[in-house]
Structure formats: C-alpha cells, structure tokens
Design brief:
With about 150 residues, the protein is of the alpha+beta class. Helices cover about 60% and strands about 15% of the residues. The chain is built from 5 helices and 2 strands. The chain has a two-stranded antiparallel sheet. Helix 1 runs antiparallel to helix 2 and helix 1 packs across helix 4.
Length: about 150
C-alpha cells in the first residue's frame, strides 16, 4: 500500500496532468513529466511518454468534439477522470520505485502560469496620433491545473 501522503501528491499530479492536456498546457506539462521520469529506465521513460502522447491526443479530440457539440461534454469528463486516475497510479508507482523522484512529482502538483513580459516602443517619423506610443506587452499562458 502506498504512503497516504504519496497518494495525495500523486492524485494532485494526476489531476494536473489531465487538466493540462485539456487547457492547452500539454507541452509544458510534458516537459515536466520528462523531468519526473528521467531517473527511470529507458523503457519506463518511453512508456510514460507514449502514454502521455496518447492521452493528450484523446483529450484533445474530445475537447475539439465538445467545442462543436456540447453533448460530448460528459464523454470529455469521463475521459479526463479516467486519464487522471491512470496518471495518479502511474506516477505513484513510479515514485514508489524511484523515491528520489518525489520532489519532481511534488512539482507536478503546483499550479502556475508561464508568463512572457516585455516592453514595446513605437517610433518613427511623421505624425503619431496622440504623440509617441509607449506601452507594455504581457502574455500569460495558463497551465490550467498544472
């Protein structure tokens, strides 16, 4: 039986992984899964990434289908729950076999935002309406629940 704290961590990570696949954060969470499984055997790594790619594809298809027909929302919900549970089990078993990976698993439970910030200054010759245009640019890319 798994340690209850590990079960809680794995459950959070499994939910974040599945949610990220739906909310457009699949590439970000994929990189974090690569980090998690880096201590595993080549077979463990390949199996995890193949499962991730397959699950992300399934959820992307259900998400697209739901955008066109809301009657598919229940199917998307069931698929998300199933995939979340599978990832909970997968990462829990992996960290049990590779306890040194626990900090990487804990990192998968943290929600956050990737942010790109910069400034923009438009200059040139001629007439600017209202003078020079100086402003900022801020793009936030939500990780969803990842």
């Amino acid at each position: 039986m798994l340690d209850p704290a590990l079960v809680a961590i794995a459950t959070g990570a499994g939910g974040n992984i599945a949610a990220s696949m739906i909310t457009g954060g699949a590439l970000v969470i994929r990189a974090r899964i690569v980090e998690l499984f880096r201590r595993g055997t080549p077979d463990e790594q390949a199996s995890a990434m193949a499962a991730f790619d397959s699950d992300a594809r399934v959820l992307a298809e259900w998400t697209r289908a739901t955008e066109h027909n809301t009657e598919f929302a229940a199917e998307l919900s069931r698929a998300t729950e199933r995939i979340s549970q599978e990832w909970t089990n997968r990462v829990g078993e992996y960290v049990t076999a590779h306890p040194e990976a626990r900090p990487d698993l804990e990192a998968l439970t943290v929600t956050g935002t990737v942010s790109n910030s910069g400034t923009q200054r438009n200059t040139g010759s001629g007439t600017f309406v209202n003078g020079a245009v100086i402003g900022g640019v801020h793009n936030s890319y939500g990780w969803g629940a990842c």
